[in-house]
Amino acid sequence: MGILLPIIMATTVFLTFYSFSFAILKRSWRAMLISFIASLPISMYFAGVNPPLSFLGLAPILFLTLTIIFRRRIQREFAQKVLDEQ
């Protein structure tokens, strides 16, 4: 049982950074949403530590904001393509 928590934390850290880098490169709102969800357990862990590291608990807010920005941008591009075709 003692090794399970580090494995879970390492998996979520890897998933968060991988999906975040993929989302930035591809500008994918779905990958950014995955990084938001994956970063929630990590942020809860860092929210309870000393103040310099506790600011890492705010990372999901950044990920959620970027998710909304990417989603709106994609919707605008899609709407513009539909208008251009008409």
Task: Describe the SSE topology.
Layout: H1 4-26, H2 29-47, H3 51-54, H4 59-85
Describe the structure.
The protein is mostly helical and 86 residues long. It has one domain. 85% of the residues lie in helices and 0% in strands. The protein has four helices and no strands. The protein is elongated, with a radius of gyration of 16 Å. It starts with a helix and ends with a helix.
State the main characteristics.
86 residues, mainly alpha, elongated
Distance N to C terminus: 61 Å
> In percent, how much strand structure appears in the residues?
under 5%
**Number of separate strands:** 0
What class do helices, strands and sheet pairing give? mainly alpha
Q: Unreliable stretches, pLDDT < 50, 5 or more residues?
A: none
Q: Work out the helix count.
A: 4
Mean pLDDT: 87
Rg computed from alpha carbons, rounded to a whole number of angstroms: 16 Å
Biggest sheet features: none
Task: Give a quick rundown of the structure.
The chain contains 4 helices and no strands.
